[in-house]
Amino acid sequence: MELKASQMEFTVAIDGPAAAGKGTIARALADKFGFAYLDTGLLYRAVAAKGGDPVQAAMGLTPQDLARDDLRTLAAGQAASRVAAMPQVRAALTAFQRQFARSAGGAVLDGRDIGTVICPMAEVKLYVTSSAEVRAERRWRETGGDLAQVLAEVRERDARDMGRADAPLRPAEDSVLIDTTELTIEQAVDLACAAVLARFPERTIP
Asked: What's this model's pTM, rounded to 2 decimal places?
């Protein structure tokens, strides 16, 4: 059953490493609560895919750039991680993300620095994680290839995302941790919904 959406501004910030399930959870929350949804990773994937100077690409990003059909590949994710380490690129995309986060009726954003940098005042912050081995197997089932290589690339990206000087991946101090290693999708979504309802208990399922 769907939850009634409020017209108030309400932001859910979801962070976590690649293939942890944050996108699945974010889309489910958007559907249940009527929130607007932004996969911020697509912004960086689109910047990388445009080529040329990443800063100029970020400043000139358009909705059409986000609709490309080659943004979900493993290679696109690796390229996105590299441009996301550039402070100038992050700065160029910050204003867009913050404006989206205060969409009327609420918004859910998933990425790697939403709760710590982009929306530190978000009403709900979730940190969705899972073991590297489980995340690699999930990504391998999506993309194919050699599982050992996919695991190596997942660990490489984790190290880059967590070790970058600007806005490293880490949980916000007040975030709710959801470890999906041994959870079903339904269980993970239920935990996320509970976090939203705990913040605003007056929201009820009709």
From this structure: 0.85
- Asked whether the beta carbons of 132 and 155 are under 8 A apart, the reply is yes
- Please give the order of strands across the beta sheet that includes 36-39: 36-39, 107-111, 11-15, 124-129, 176-179
Residues of the chain where predicted confidence (pLDDT) is lower than 70: 1-8, 201-206
Single-letter code of the amino acid located at 69: D
Per-residue model confidence as pLDDT tens digits over 80-92? 989 988 999 989 9
Q: Distance (Å, rounded) from C-alpha 126 to C-alpha 114?
A: 10
- Indicate the fold that domain 11-197 takes in CATH: Rossmann fold (3.40.50)
pLDDT of residue 1: 38
CB 127 within 8 Å of CB 172: yes
The Cα–Cα gap between 187 and 62 comes to 35
Q: Helix (H) and strand (E) counts for the chain?
A: 9, 5
Q: What is the pLDDT of residue 202?
A: 62
Residue 44 CA, distance from chain mean position = 11
